[in-house]
Write a structure and sequence with these properties.
Radius of gyration: 16 Å
Largest sheet: 2 strands, antiparallel
Strand order of the largest sheet: 1-2
Helix content: over 70%
Structural class: mainly alpha
Number of helices: 7
Distance between the termini: 32 Å
Number of strands: 2
Length: about 140
């Protein structure tokens, strides 16, 4: 997802390489960081990302689950290793981030009821919450 968001790889390049099905999933999950040349706020981007995920199919939810699983596990490791200064690299602190992650988990659980990936990402977010609690100043 970051390839399109942060690396300026066009969706057409994704489609040429991986096909229209994969490009469609990437399109649904890619945040629009700018509109008409203006940066969109974190809150607006995350609200829109949740709305897009709610409209997406189970394949996109599974990809989002894997993406979130990777992100929250990496963040938990970084917090345990480096401490709360990790949040300096984020546009928002732990509370808004954790709230967003929990919202994503709820949508994933709705889209993938009973799926082991949904349970795994929920557990990873719970672990992140405990890590945040134990590493907060």
């Amino acid at each position: 997802l970051l390839v399109v968001e942060d690396q300026d790889v066009p969706l057409s390049g994704i489609e040429d390489t991986f096909g229209s099905r994969v490009a469609g999933i990437v399109a649904v999950l890619t945040e629009q960081k700018h509109a008409a040349g203006v940066s969109r706020s974190w809150e607006v981007r995350k609200r829109d990302a949740l709305d897009q995920l709610r409209r997406a199919g189970p394949d996109a939810a599974a990809v989002k689950a894997a993406d979130l699983l990777h992100s929250v596990r990496g963040l938990a490791v970084a917090l345990r290793t480096l401490g709360p200064e990790v949040w300096q690299h984020f546009s928002r602190g732990p509370d808004p981030a954790l709230q967003f992650y929990r919202s994503v988990v709820a949508v994933i659980q709705d889209k993938l009821p009973g799926h082991p990936l949904a349970a795994e990402v929920a557990a990873a977010v719970d672990d992140l919450a405990l890590t945040i609690e134990h590493t907060s100043p």
